[in-house]
Amino acid sequence: MSEVKLLTEFYHLPEFQTLAGYKAKGGYETLPKALKMQPQAIIDEVKASGLRGRGGAGFPTGMKWGFLPKNGEPRYLLCNADEGEPGTFKDRMMMERAPHQLIEGMIISAFAIGSKKGYIYVRGEYVYPIECLRKAIKEAYDAGFLGKNILGSGFDFDLDVYRGAGAYICGEETGMISSLEGLKGQPKLKPPFPAVQGYLRKPTIVNNVETLAAVTYIIRDGATTYRKHGTEKSAGTKLFSLSGNVMKPGNYEVPLGYPLMDLIMKEGGGMKPGRKLKAVIPGGSSAPVLTAEEVAKANLDYESLAGLGTMLGSGAVIVIDDSQCMVDMLGVLSHFYAHESCGQCTPCREGTGWLNKILHSILEGRGRLQDIDLLIKVADNMKGKTICALSDAAALPVLSFVTKFRDEFEFYVREGRSKVKGTTYAEMHH
Amino acid sequence: MFTLSDQGLAEVKKELARYEAKESAIIPSLYIAQKENKGFITPEMITYLSKVMDIPEARINEVFKFYTMFNQKPVGKYHVQVCTNISCALEGGREMAHHICHELGVKYDEVTSDGRFTVSKVECLGSCGTAPMMQVNDTYHEKLTPETAMNLLRGMK
């Protein structure tokens, strides 16, 4: 198997960013076809394609759309471009290289669900992607692809970009809705799910950039053709963001079910000279870590990774080689989650803080052996107890790192220094 | 007393009319105000925005304090934000951040004595395949080494 460039085929062309360049490669040719279809037929096609949310949760897209009330009540289509899961950088590339691809996907999706208003919520740091999107949206309005009576179909759709301001939690769909409403980006209790009561309490669909972009190709080629890529339960292609200790990090589009080891060794060019693979975080920092032995058995699809106790998540594959200290790396992650907990739910607010404090006391040579089990106990108490999944996301790396690399944690506590690096935290990081 | 420029005020009014809920204009307006005040926001600016937007101060303040891109104290002309999250940490992001601070003779989140730089460690910026990296004001600089990062910064006057 090798790369399958369905969405990314023309990403190497600078002009693909513009309306003219996008149209030259067949862009906006699917839109008129879609506008002649029955909206329900588009939803059915997306359902039949097996497309699952590409942002992290992997929820079937067509089914999500199906939760909307079947009346004429106004509804919103929100694109989640708050890409913040550590290790993930695919949406950024998509918005920079192919903003019209997302826009076309959004217009078709909006027509399918009957939405007249959409927002693309982009993380605040993505100044350049926002600029690309704004330029493209203007081009699309000028060409009659957005606004009133699109291509004479009688369908109206307005699209705007909203700039976030730095908060990982806004990638959680209800946190994003809060932020768009001008509130702190705190998630809301579900139910009601956004499809019933979302932005401004109106029915709302939130989909990831890559998910919406894929819709165009599903309608263009049909669900059956789309399903030729991937596995039965994990259909289609997916962009994987490969980072960490590999020769050729980058975004690679491969069919779901692609062997994880091939992504690292073939597309990623393998490990650096003299280095061995130690571990991989396969789906963004919230996904439990895999050992090198587990990596050899893993395929990049939802089921294979779930079978290994981890998840596909956002498709961020973070490669860790044998020069890295797992205690140190978990310290990085625990700091992140403590920083990003929105503070709403006690188990998460307190738990992420505790995990970070315990880990840093170990790193700074003040750890006790019982702290290792305390980490597990605190993490266990954070799972499934909160409004959103951030608490679980903070707990899972801890449980997997400590369980799978326990010897490194025990060595660190006993000796006050890293087993791998041989040095103390202060020596490692001044 | 802080006031927005005529243009800034016009932009805030435009944002107020742009969304179905006027509170959605809080984040965009904080950006406008921060830009006009050399990169940070003071309590009196919140009071001013509250009057201009007709939104209670507490509502604006809670948004201001929640999001990391709004600065609560002065920053240098160039705000150097070095990613130290996992993908960058694996490739030397933390060492690079330390090197920059050391070379500039400044601690994290402080302003250099000439007012040019503030160095901050930040969470993932979505530039993981081009690590280590830093964001200087709005611009990403990628595939850096401690030395190339410092060379870039030395050129920023």
Main sheet properties of chain A: 5 strands, mixed
Helix content of chain A: 40-55%
The gyration radius over C-alpha positions of chain A equals 22 Å
Beta-strand percentage of chain B? 5-15%
**Main β-sheet description of chain B:** 4 strands, mixed
Helical fraction of chain B: 40-55%
How many helical stretches of chain B? 7
Largest sheet: spatial strand order of chain B: 2-1-3-4
Spatial strand arrangement across the major sheet of chain A: 6-5-11-8-9
Mean pLDDT of chain B: 97
Please state the average pLDDT score of chain A.
97
N-to-C order of helices and strands of chain A:
HHHHEHHEHEHEHHEEEHEEHEHEHHHHHH
Runs of chain A in which pLDDT lies below 50 for 5 or more consecutive residues are: none
Backbone shape of chain A: globular
Low-confidence residue ranges of chain B: none
User: How many DSSP helices of chain A?
Assistant: 19
Structural class of chain A: alpha/beta
Which key features would you list for this structure?
heterodimer, A: 430 residues, alpha/beta, 5-stranded mixed β-sheet, 4-stranded parallel β-sheet, 11 strands, B: 157 residues, alpha+beta, 4-stranded mixed β-sheet, 7 helices, 4 strands, elongated
